[in-house]
Design a protein that fits this description.
Number of strands: 5
CATH class of the domain at 318-323 and 326-440: Mainly Beta
Oligomer: single chain
Strand order of the largest sheet: 1-2-3-5-4
Shape: rod-shaped
Distance between the termini: 46 Å
CATH architecture of the domain at 318-323 and 326-440: Beta Barrel
């Protein structure tokens, strides 16, 4: 998405504030003033020359008349209108940089030399012309753009002090929010991301129902993610707000948001991010700002859990539910655990695989007396049919293990594998890419081995 506020309007005459009434004298008043030189600020010939330039419809000819006026009356008090005609004529000729140049001349005039309404119109015109005049802005271009927009934020409120006010409060808020968005864009171009954050937040607060608010949220999110270090959580929240408010290309923004969350977390299973994204989008619908209580664990957070987990702590954490279960599952989903031991409490055979229903614990008595499984250990005994779910990413398919068919109920079993899912109630941990330790597979006619008591921790 582009970083400037909006594209220029079809014509400068349609600017929100361009129709402010001018206060220059009528021809009759100018004629009267010509006879009273002590009270006049411009002469009748000046006025006539300005009017001739104003009436000229051909932009090239109009510029010649304006050049002649400036040459003859360089200090005229009508110069504010001359500059206005200049930037309008150059806009029509699509010479946008010259249009900006004359808008800048008008904006730079002191308040006693240029009416408030005329300066306001020039500021808004300049902001709208900027992307056309400078498609590849330099730092100097961005700085000037920001300075002009900041000037506008300061002087626009004075419009309400005029009698009668030429704009309503709502119109004023819309214009100021527009300028704040321009400041944010300029700060973004200057890589002043903290400044951009403040500007976009101000634009949203000034006029939250503005049609540009979804774009402001999008740019706010990008600014948060561009700071050093990135402010990830606030950036995710702002992007979610943009998606909720139907920002342009919202599907692409949603995909981008998902990719950044995935990059931030690097969870065990990519699919877990989908649930987090859905929750984030739902929560952000009703809150412009991220609640302090809302968080998404970082990769470092998950890595700490993963490296300190054993199969017993995993089972305890997941079966306990709540935030702890969510964090643990993000950390260990798809993770491989070696040398897990347990007791087979049931066997469910299919054509190509066997589901061993296994109980494991760090308590020997519990292991010995167990009648209910807390793990579903899936072992393939024949080649997988075409279209079967592949093993988790990063794991190796051990291939068929037909000898495991010799296991019986109550036998001990030792295996390595990857955790692929779990049922919270009744609790059951699901395994795939399982490799059974051959030393634990019963030989034909062999006596049963005693049940194992304590599983080895994850390495």
């Amino acid at each position: 998405m582009r970083n400037y506020p909006t594209k220029v309007a079809v014509g400068l005459a349609v600017l929100l504030l361009s129709a402010l009434p001018a206060t220059r004298a009528t021809a009759e008043q100018a004629g009267q003033a010509a006879g009273q030189s002590a009270q006049t600020t411009y002469t009748l010939p000046e006025y006539n020359a300005e009017q001739a330039a104003a009436a000229e419809k051909d932009s090239q000819q109009q510029i010649k008349l304006l050049d002649a006026f400036v040459a003859q009356y360089p200090n005229s008090t009508l110069m504010q209108y001359i500059y206005q005609f200049y930037y309008t004529a150059y806009y029509k000729l699509k010479n946008y940089q010259k249009a900006v140049e004359y808008a800048d001349k008008l904006i730079a005039m002191p308040s006693d030399k240029a009416e408030l309404g005329v300066r306001v119109s020039a500021i808004q015109a300049r902001i709208q012309l900027f992307p056309l005049a400078y498609p590849k802005p330099s730092n100097d271009d961005w700085t000037k753009e920001r300075d002009v927009a900041q000037t506008g934020v300061k002087i626009f409120p004075n419009l309400l002090r005029l009698t009668p006010p030429p704009v309503t409060q709502d119109q004023l808020n819309a214009s100021i929010a527009y300028l704040q968005g321009a400041i944010g864009s300029a700060d973004f171009g200057l890589k002043d991301f903290p400044g951009a954050i403040e500007a976009y937040k101000a634009a949203i607060a000034t006029n939250p129902k503005d049609p540009q608010t979804p774009v402001s949220y999008y740019r706010l999110g990008i600014a948060y993610l561009s700071t050093a270090p990135p402010q990830f959580l606030d950036g995710f929240w702002a992007l979610a707000r943009a998606v909720d408010l139907k920002v342009s290309d919202s599907d692409k923004v949603k995909d981008y948001l998902r990719s950044r969350i995935l990059q931030y977390e690097q969870p065990g299973c990519d699919s877990q991010v989908d649930a987090q994204l859905s929750e984030l989008l739902q929560l952000a619908q009703n809150s412009p700002d991220r609640p302090a209580s809302y968080t998404i664990p970082s990769h470092d957070d998950l890595q700490k859990i993963s490296t300190s987990s054993t199969i017993i702590t995993v089972i305890n954490d997941l079966s306990g539910g709540g935030d702890k279960a969510k964090m643990t599952w993000l950390a260990i989903c798809g993770a491989e655990f070696p040398e897990v031991v347990g007791k087979i409490v049931d066997i469910q055979k299919s054509d190509n695989f066997i589901d061993f229903m296994v109980f494991t614990s760090d308590n020997g008595d519990q292991m010995q007396n167990a009648t209910t499984a807390n793990m579903d250990v899936k072992v393939w005994t024949a080649a997988k049919p075409a279209g079967s779910t592949p093993p988790p990413a990063g794991t190796t398919d051990p291939g068929p293990q037909p000898d495991v068919a010799r296991f019986e109920k109550d036998d001990p079993i030792k295996f390595s594998g990857a955790i692929t899912g779990y049922d919270p109630s009744p609790f059951l941990l699901h395994w795939d890419a399982v490799k059974v330790d051959p030393s634990t597979i019963p030989e034909k006619g062999a006596a049963k081995k005693p049940a194992a008591h304590r599983p080895a921790p994850k390495e």
